[in-house]
Write a structure and sequence with these properties.
The protein has 9 helices and 10 strands. About 45% of the residues lie in helices and about 20% in strands. It is globular, with a radius of gyration of 16 Å. It has one domain (about 5-210): Carbamate kinase. The strands form 2 sheets. An 8-stranded mixed beta sheet has the order 3-4-2-1-5-9-10-8, with helices on both faces. Strands 6-7 form a two-stranded antiparallel ribbon. Strand 3 (about 75-80), helix 4 and strand 4 form a beta-alpha-beta unit. The protein is an alpha/beta fold and about 210 residues long.
Length: about 210
């Protein structure tokens, strides 16, 4: 498997479905973010203060839910619960969409906190597969400040060590740490423009941020 493509929950439903349909036939595994469902759990936690494990596990279940809904609407997409099943799905010409809760219950390697979201989970899974990682989100990539702030500048390439000082950007806080730990890298691209995603997968020029962890 060449690529893990994480489709951010902020793209659901229309943009995520449009992108997934373009990915059919590509050597990719899709992982969905938890979107507004996971954000609602975080909001609930502000009032009730659930345990870190309860927050972590229920947010992952939100990833399962959006993955199931996406696969329901994309012809040739198929939900899978293991990396082995993902490989089998690809060999059968299908587009595997990972429902990660079972895998992450068995291989509980990540911190249980809001520092870890679907970004770090996707990175962890790409590390297990020795696959390249592409994060499709609702902004063009990484900026010096929030894109909504005047004067924010787009960053074409950045090291994970420099990204550590950014805190939470369009990526979660643990993402840069894991990139360094795994000596890995990632592309961050605007999934509202599927042609940019396809260009990266095909090795062509596109607008994205490349993050290197070496």
């Amino acid at each position: 498997m060449e690529w893990v493509v994480k489709i951010g929950g902020s793209l659901f439903p229309e943009h995520s479905l449009n992108l997934a349909r373009k990915l059919v036939g590509k050597d990719v595994l899709i992982i969905c973010g938890g979107g507004e469902m996971a954000n609602q759990i975080r909001e609930y936690n502000n009032h009730v203060n659930f345990s870190p494990s309860a927050n972590h596990q229920t947010a992952i279940l939100c990833m399962d839910i959006l993955g199931m809904l996406l696969a329901d609407q994309v012809k040739s997409a198929e939900t899978v619960k293991s990396l082995e099943d993902a490989e089998k799905s690809l060999k059968q010409g299908k587009l595997p969409v990972l429902l990660p809760s079972m895998l992450l219950e068995e291989m509980d390697a990540l911190e249980h906190s809001w520092r870890v979201t679907s970004d770090s989970i996707s990175l962890y899974i790409s590390h297990l597969l020795k696959a390249k990682l592409l994060i499709a989100t609702d902004v063009d990539g990484i900026y010096t400040h929030s894109p909504s702030v005047d004067g924010a500048k787009f960053i074409k390439e950045i090291s994970a060590k420099k990204l550590l000082n950014f805190g939470e950007t369009s990526l979660d806080e643990s993402f840069a740490e894991l990139l360094i730990q795994y000596k890995s890298s990632s592309h961050v691209v605007n999934g509202k423009h599927p042609e940019r995603v396809m260009a990266i997968l095909d090795g062509r020029s596109s607008r994205y941020t490349f993050i290197g962890g070496d």
